[in-house]
Design goal:
heterotrimer; A alpha/beta (about 210); B mainly alpha (about 220); C mainly alpha (about 250); A: about 210 residues; alpha/beta; Rossmann fold; 6 helices; about 30% helix; C: about 250 residues; mainly alpha; 8 helices
Chain lengths: ~210, ~220, ~250
């Protein structure tokens, strides 16, 4: 169960302009890929490309599971700026929708455990529209913990620490560290400082 | 297996939303009711005249009411980010869109199908025409949603979405309008509506086969 | 299926049909085609109009009014043909990712829309003395009107995106959707027309003397040449506008 990511000469465009020179990076299991760069450097676009949501204008992004090619959809969970939750539905309903689309079977126990870990178990049945920004963020991060087993999916986190209080940020840092130990790849962008205990960190400056 | 799981999830979510926000299906219905009620004021209330325009008014009213719901397909999801879940699913996007359009057809279509015969009585149309109208609307609503899904998908990230959607979609609904209203008119004049009805159904099947693919391509273009 | 322009370039580099896939290479060629087409259009139009207006006999039924067909029919044909050409370049662009193909589509669209307008306008002018009214819901006129709507939709969609590339692909897709639907729409409008009213006299429906046919053919070629010239002119403007950042354009306009 080893996941690897190969970014090969990738270039991305916005409005017809290349965002950065061709990027080539390869990482394997247990690596934290820290994507840095100024505003507008293309961090979010790069993450979307890794998630299969944007296509590079040149080069390719390849995910491999034990050396065999796999799709970004099967290999990653992407948590972006937006929470991917509908205001009119409850946290549980939103998460059930997300897991079904990600090709996982919805297990209430698993979802309960994930919400518990993020400290929002009591909000499970509340409509997302009634939650605060921080609570929404935490609930949406629960999606990360709904993978088949720890380390099975790469986490693509776009500014995950925004809107989180100090304690929650610490907790998320720990969750990321645990996931890395379990063999995941974590790609993240952040404007805030963070401290993640990881065996291997690769920095990419765009 | 997991495709069934995913498309059920998509459809279920749509129904959950319909149950939570009644306005999603009630507003198009209200729009339809009001549009249909306006015409007699404009053309006069003699039943002979109403009978002649009734089929057209009800049909166009139903199409416009359905058109209004198109932004609901992807716009809200694009704003809150859940569109990414749909796009990053391993299942074929076309099938997921199809599931969504199917659920939306029920949610939007059912009230309109029930209201159409009701309004045909206000337009002095006989009962058999009313039934044929309901059937025509039942075929027209999914057809418009299928064709409209392409435009809605393209316009997720564009300016002036709502009006442009109408400009793009309405010309493509002409076949279903001609055949659907044609079938009801045939019944009104005491002829067999089978030819029109089959052609209208054929266009629905055609849209069913091609629209989801085009809409998924469109969604990939506009979110890329 | 769909490639990026870079991928297509790697694949087809050096092949004969690829030589003019780059805007820079096609720009001068388009200039030559444009000049040739303007000349051709002018000559053919003069000859065609002369034969049509001064040589061809007066129509027995319709009198002099019928002569509008020398403009009406070619315009209606071009409106249809240009839509197909537009859809063809849209498909090419979507499959190969070539930006010149999308520009070609964009260049054709306004000309096609103008042709539809000319066909409708002359149809109305012809209809007034013949039918006694400017507009009749005749199948061909109605179809041309819908075709005009499709053009308008395409042009509006292409303009609705801030990101040009997105606008290219989005409008290309809608051009394809339109092209697939056009035959169905034509069929259904014909059906509707025969259902609601008997067939009426149409422009050019009566049997024609061979000199009339000659004039019409020449006028068709004149319209064809005009459309090519107009499209090439618009294409060149687009190339300059879109490639404004490149070195060759900067040197060209210096």
């Amino acid at each position: 169960m080893a996941l690897s990511l190969h970014i090969n000469g990738v270039q991305l465009e916005r409005g017809g302009r290349s965002l950065f020179p061709p990027l080539t990076v390869s990482t394997g299991a247990g690596t934290l890929l820290y994507v840095r760069g100024a505003n507008g450097a293309g961090k979010t676009t790069l993450l979307r490309a890794l998630a299969g949501l944007a296509s590079p204008s040149a080069g390719e992004v390849a995910w491999r599971q034990d050396g065999n090619p796999t799709t970004a959809a099967a290999a990653t969970t992407f948590v972006g700026h937006a929470n991917a939750m509908n205001d009119a539905l409850s946290v549980i309903e939103n998460l059930s929708y997300a897991t079904s689309l990600a090709g996982q079977i919805y297990r209430p126990v698993l979802v309960g455990a994930a919400l518990e870990q993020l400290g929002v178990f009591n909000l499970a049945l509340r409509r997302v529209g009634t939650l605060s920004q921080g609570q929404r963020k935490r609930a949406s991060l629960a999606r990360l913990l709904l993978r088949e087993q720890p380390g099975a999916r790469a986490w693509l986190l776009d500014e995950p620490f925004v809107a989180l209080d100090v304690d929650t940020q610490k907790m998320l840092e720990q969750l990321i560290a645990q996931e890395l130990k379990a063999g995941a790849i974590v790609v993240l962008t952040s404007h805030q400082d963070f401290a993640i205990d990881s065996a291997k960190t690769t920095e990419v400056l765009l | 297996m997991s495709l069934r799981l995913a498309s059920t999830a998509v459809a279920r979510r749509e129904f959950q939303l319909f149950a939570r926000r009644k306005s999603d299906w009630a507003n198009p219905l209200m729009f339809f009711v009001i549009v249909c009620s306006l015409f007699p004021f404009a053309v006069g209330s003699e039943s002979e005249r109403l009978r002649l325009i009734g089929v057209g008014v009800i049909f166009v009213g139903a199409l416009l009411a359905t058109l209004l719901t198109l932004p609901r397909l992807f716009d809200e999801d694009a704003r809150d980010g859940s569109l990414d879940l749909l796009l990053s699913s391993n299942e074929p996007l076309a099938m997921l869109i199809l599931a969504r359009v199917a659920a939306l057809s029920f949610g939007i279509g059912a009230p309109l199908i029930l209201a159409a015969p009701l309004f045909s009585f206000l337009y002095a149309l006989p009962a058999d025409v009313a039934l044929m109208l309901a059937l025509g609307v039942a075929i027209a609503v999914p057809t418009l949603l299928l064709v409209g899904a392409i435009a809605a998908a393209l316009l997720v990230s564009a300016r002036g979405g709502a009006i442009l959607t109408a400009v793009l979609v309405l010309p493509l609904t002409i076949p279903t309008l001609i055949f659907g209203a044609g079938a009801a008119l045939k019944v009104l004049f005491g002829e067999s509506p089978v030819a029109e009805l089959s052609l209208q159904a054929a266009y629905l099947l055609f849209a069913l086969a091609l629209s989801p693919l085009a809409a998924s391509a469109a969604l990939k273009i506009s979110t890329d | 299926m769909a490639r990026t322009e870079q991928q297509s370039n790697d694949r087809f580099q050096g092949r004969w049909f690829w030589r003019y896939a780059s805007p820079a290479a096609f720009y001068p060629v388009a200039g030559r085609i444009e000049k040739l087409s303007w000349a051709l259009a002018a000559i053919l139009a003069i000859v065609g109009l002369y034969i049509g207006f001064f040589r061809a006999p007066t129509d027995a039924q319709q009198g002099e009014v019928y002569r509008v067909i020398y403009i009406h029919v070619p315009a209606a044909w071009m409106a249809m043909i240009i839509y197909l050409a537009m859809a063809f370049w849209a498909a090419t662009g979507l499959v190969l990712g070539t930006r010149l193909s999308f520009m070609m589509s964009h260049a054709l669209a306004p000309t096609g829309a103008i042709m539809a307008v000319i066909a409708l306008w002359t149809g109305a002018l012809w209809g007034r003395p013949t039918w006694g009214t400017y507009w009749v819901w005749d199948a061909r006129l109605t179809s041309t009107l819908i075709l005009f709507f499709l053009y308008v939709g395409y042009i509006a969609l292409a303009a609705a995106f801030d990101d040009k590339k997105k606008g290219d692909r989005a409008s290309a897709l809608i051009a394809l959707v339109g092209a697939v639907n056009v035959p169905i729409i034509y069929f259904s409008v014909n059906w509707w027309n025969t259902l609601h009213q008997g067939s009426s006299v149409r422009p050019g429906s009566s049997s024609m003397a061979s000199i009339m046919l000659t004039a019409m053919l020449i006028m068709t070629f004149a319209f064809w040449a005009y459309c090519v010239a107009a499209a090439m002119h618009r294409l060149r403007t687009q190339i300059i506008e879109r490639e404004a950042e490149t070195k060759w354009v900067k040197e060209l306009v210096k």
